[in-house]
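Bit of a strange request maybe. I'm writing a small parser for structure token strings and I need a real example to test against, not something I typed by hand. Could someone generate the tokens for this chain?
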Amino acid sequence: MNDLTKAQLTIGFLAVFATIWHPILTIKQPIELISIGLIIGYVVLLMILSYIIIALLEWVNVFDLKTNSALTLLVLVTFRILSAASIC
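Reply from user aminoacidic:
Good idea to test on real output. This should exercise your parser:
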């Protein structure tokens, strides 16, 4: 597996775990099948977004892979925070 793919997978999973812990921990009722489906959909969405953002940053080729990964993680977590704030 090349470094780009490793970075894309790692950043995708880090973004998922950084943004999904709070909603999972605040659920008081048992997790239903719909909730599990939403979590899986959210994981897929963040993985696709991390793949696209890192690929675009590598295509532009301004920064190295580590900087691109950090920027991608920052964008994905900010995206989640802003989407949660707009719901409230």
